Amino acid sequence: METRGISRAVIGRLPRYYRYLGDLIDEGIERISSNDLSKKMHVTASQIRQDLNNFGGFGQQGYGYNVRFLRTEIGRILGLDKSHNMIIIGAGNLGQALANYASFEKNGFLMKGIFDVRPELDGMMIRGVPVRMMSELETFLAENEIDIAALAIPKARAVEVSEILVNNGIHAIWNFAHTDLRLPKDVVVESVHLSDSLMKLSYNITCHKNGEKKGAGV
Asked: Which of 36, 97, 130, 143 is the most exposed place for a label (fewest CB within 10 A)?
């Protein structure tokens, strides 16, 4: 399905729809109206309809949405109907937490390798996958079809390692390093800056507290 021209905001909401629809399937719900879905997700029914109409709508007047069909279609749009082989660079606390997150596998993200520079971690098993040394990375990439590399390493090494990955055929990087990567246009980078998210939370807390103080003085 052609998705060019669809806003990043709409694309960004699709995983949330996918997650809520999965919960509905677990509850045994077979169909749902946009109004009922809006109550569960705390967004407007109009927003839901507008978002889904970008991809063809999927609903029927007076019937609503077939929950399983809609989730399957959203999964297909997100590329979840295919499996994606991935590796993790960095076997520290964050890297191990990522490797141990079982939901990745449920959604088709298959962990194939974990790499680190610390000799004491060489051979350590994480969910059945051994930690390998960074010196093995290029050979591993040449011998395996890897789609995604997750960077869970310090900022100082992120640029160097990302260039090695790109030079060895990686076109998708999930970046947890606290730096912005400048890579060729054909490389897709999704950056997750945990401190940025925490700062946004701090801002919202501050606004909330300031609002309470203003309200108290009225």
From this structure: 143
Please check whether residues 103 and 45 belong to one and the same domain.
no
Q: What does pTM read for this prediction?
A: 0.83
Q: Give Cβ neighbours of residue 35 (< 8 Å, ≥ 6 apart).
A: 45
Residues 139 and 162 in one domain: yes
Q: Which of 46, 77, 108 is the last residue of a domain?
A: 77
Q: Rounded to whole angstroms, what are the CA distances from 165 to 29, 43, 102, 149, 179? A: 43, 39, 24, 8, 16
Q: How many CB atoms lie within 10 A of CB 122?
A: 14
Question: Distance between alpha carbon 200 and the CA centroid of its chain, in Å?
Answer: 19
If asked whether residues 60 and 113 sit together in one domain, one would say no
pLDDT tens string 26-72: 999 999 999 999 999 999 999 999 999 998 878 776 678 999 999 99
Name the domain count of the chain.
Answer: 2
